[in-house]
Write a structure and sequence with these properties.
The protein is an alpha/beta fold. The chain has five domains: 3-90, Roll (Ubiquitin-like (UB roll)); 121-195, Roll (Ubiquitin-like (UB roll)), CATH 3.10.20; 205-351, Domain of unknown function (DUF4445) (Nucleotidyltransferase, domain 5, 2-Layer Sandwich), CATH 3.30.420; 360-397 and 507-632, Nucleotidyltransferase, domain 5 (2-Layer Sandwich), CATH 3.30.420; 407-494, no CATH class. It is 27% helix and 24% strand. It is built from 16 helices and 29 strands. Strands 14-13-12-15-17-16 form a six-stranded mixed beta sheet, sandwiched between helices. A six-stranded mixed beta sheet has the order 28-27-18-19-20-29. Strands 2-1-7-3-5 form a five-stranded mixed beta sheet. A hairpin with a 3-residue loop joins β1 and β2. α11 packs across α15 and α13 crosses α14 (581-593).
Length: 636
């Protein structure tokens, strides 16, 4: 069989002839190869250089010919024929870290009362009557009798490991035992039993599994304190930048297992690091609450996700039964309870229902609210305590930096804010971590798009003004671009340039989100003026400047005081549900009464989308404040 050697790691793997280079890289354990499009050959992000040997591209297009001239091939579209040596491209991801905070941004009123916590399990100390000739009931029967004395006739269950230690436990301290209990709709489940009075309340995990980012909190179940927080990029991104790409990638059992392993690898590394930092043993974690979109839940559990995007768009599960850590593959106490926030449909999952716990939408009957989670996918909920309607749109990863020539994620070296001078000759910017820029992230891209419009560098269709006299407006091989920074002042010596194709990508993303919001309001017969408050959720949403987002038509033209950031509401919602039985019941009821609207089946969506494909919109009457700003050229 041919061998493939990957440089600069100098790692060699033997594969059958006909294996894709990308598959060979996976077998070799190469982590630097990313397939944002899921291996469909549409993104060009998996380019490798063939240093030695011959390879067979699947197609023979002009692009293939152009790449071949430079010794480059797309790894996901090129088969191994003979022995190969390929060189991996260096990316910004090598030193990637998540920048940002995960502290609570929601009102204290929405968080659990720390003096009255009710986690998914608790402890109870009881005295079991000693066995005797007269009291000849089994140890199990006597324990159940004590536990149900005030609860009534409820089912009680356990697992074998508890039964094996029960006899010694009930005899060691004259029948005094501490029982670790899970109480749910199925009755009581005894998770552990210890002799004597034991303070067994330990720690739990609140987890948000996002398409791009995973966030985890280690939480004291005794007082609700957050003992540690970790945030990391979801390792599944190597095989797809968005959920559609990952669904396509996971069409074989082997690839589905690979995606499951990748997310578990990320989670278990984060959890191990937190436990070490907090000095907590792994078996001290007794409960986990997970908020994730429907696709992420399927990939975590190893469920085939393809039906999520195939008519009639029905997933395997929306409400996941309570599982154990051993079932899922989390390296904590194997019997730890794992619950997931219930989803509503294929594209509105538990991350959204959990996020609503951070808003007034479950308690306020008088006003109408809009909940907007902006990320790789855009999820929207409108309503209040009496009714809720939801939908989702495929926003794409443009605001995550994917598909943008100089785009990158919010890591050190990313431009996060900028201003362009009135003559478009100078650009002032702020860089995450300071130092020289390496690219521009989502918040910077939103800001940039607005600045280009205000300064007349682009028109409302996103095309560059060719009459503009600015050294920064340059002609590239096949398109025009605007230079954000010259190579002499960047990390890698390359000019940072935004192109017309990049702008088109960004406009498609913002148009998808605004059009979905506008259409869901139209479906319930409301105007923008009906909205009392707009909740902006998601880690990315945390860093959006409202003024910039309104300027480009991403957010509606409402008074700025209408908008409220609630940060990573999925993680905060998971924290709330972890500690409150009342809010867990709210979640179940919430998911059951949400009405899901499928935008793909609504012919009006395309009209709404096309109207939003301008800066800020074809109908300027929807953006009166922006029209005034454009006339004055004012940033505010």
């Amino acid at each position: 069989m041919p061998t493939v050697t990957f440089l600069p790691a100098n790692t060699t793997v033997e594969v059958p002839a006909g294996t894709l280079i990308s598959e060979a890289a996976i077998r070799a354990g190469i982590e630097d190869l990313h397939l944002p499009c899921g291996g469909k050959g549409t993104c060009g992000q998996c380019l490798v250089q063939v240093v030695q040997g011959d390879a067979d591209p699947l197609g023979h297009t002009r692009l293939d010919e152009a790449l071949a001239g430079g010794g480059l091939v797309m790894a996901c579209q090129t088969k191994v024929r003979d022995d190969l040596t390929v060189r991996m491209r260096q990316t910004h991801d090598a030193a990637m870290r998540v920048v940002g905070d995960t502290h609570f941004l929601v009102s204290q009123d929405f968080l659990p009362d720390r003096d009255n916590l009710s986690p998914m399990f608790g402890t109870e100390t009881v005295t079991v009557t000693p066995p005797s000739i007269e009291e000849h009931y089994s140890d199990w029967q006597r324990l159940v009798r004590e536990l149900t004395r005030e609860r009534g006739d409820v089912p009680v269950r356990t697992h074998l490991s508890v039964l094996r230690k029960l006899a010694d436990a009930v005899r060691a301290r004259d029948g005094l035992v501490t029982v670790l209990l899970q109480e749910d709709d199925g009755g009581l489940k005894i998770l552990d039993v210890q002799a004597g009075h034991m303070p067994m309340l330990g720690v739990g995990l609140a987890i948000d599994i996002g398409t791009t980012t995973i966030a985890v909190q280690l939480v004291s179940l005794h007082d609700g304190r957050v003992l540690a927080i970790r945030t990391a990029y979801n390792a599944q991104m190597r095989r797809g930048a968005d959920i559609i790409s990952r669904i396509d990638y996971a069409r074989t059992p082997e690839r589905l297992a690979e995606l499951r392993d990748l997310v578990l690898e990320t989670l278990n590394e984060m959890v191990a690091d937190m436990l070490s930092h907090a000095g907590v043993p792994s078996d001290g974690v007794h409960t986990v609450f997970i908020a994730a979109n429907t696709t992420m839940v399927h990939l975590l559990l190893g469920l085939p996700p393809r039906h999520i995007r195939e008519t009639p768009y029905v997933p395997t599960v929306n409400t996941v039964p309570t599982l154990t850590a051993a079932d899922i593959g989390l390296t904590i106490n194997p019997q730890a309870i794992v619950a997931c926030a219930p989803g509503v449909g294929s594209y509105v999952g538990g991350d959204i229902t959990a996020g609503l716990l951070c808003t007034e939408m479950l308690t306020n009957h008088d006003d109408v609210f809009l909940f907007l989670d902006i990320g790789t996918n855009g999820e929207i909920v409108v309503g209040n305590a009496d009714w809720l309607v939801t939908c989702a749109c495929s926003a794409g990863p443009a605001f995550e930096g994917s598909g943008i020539k100089c785009g990158m994620r919010a890591t050190e070296g990313a431009i996060e804010y900028l201003e362009i001078s009135e003559d478009a000759q100078a650009v002032r910017y702020d860089v995450i971590g300071e130092g020289k820029p390496a690219g521009i992230c989502g918040s910077g891209l939103i800001c940039l798009l607005g600045e280009l419009l205000l300064r007349g560098v682009v028109d409302q269709s996103g095309r560059f003004n060719t009459d503009l006299h600015s050294d920064r407006l340059v002609q590239l091989e096949s398109t025009r671009g605007f230079v954000l920074e010259w190579g002499a002042h960047t990390q890698d010596g390359t000019d940072l340039v935004i192109t017309e194709a990049d702008i088109e990508n960004l406009m498609r993303t913002k148009a998808a989100i605004y059009a979905a919001c506008a259409l869901i309001l139209a479906n319930v017969g409301l105007e923008w003026s009906s909205i009392a408050r707009v909740y902006i959720a998601g880690g990315f949403g945390r860093y959006i400047q409202v003024e910039d987002a309104v300027l480009i038509g991403l957010l509606p033209d409402l008074p700025y005081a209408t908008f409220t950031y609630i940060g990573n509401s999925a993680l905060t919602g998971a924290y709330i549900a972890l500690l409150s039985s009342e809010r867990r019941r709210d979640l179940a009821a919430l998911a059951a009464r949400m009405t899901y609207i499928d935008l793909s089946s609504d012919p009006r969506y395309m009209d709404s989308y096309l109207g939003a494909l301008f800066l800020p919109h074809t109908d300027m009457a929807q953006f009166p404040s922006v029209e005034a700003r454009m006339r004055s050229g004012s940033r505010r």
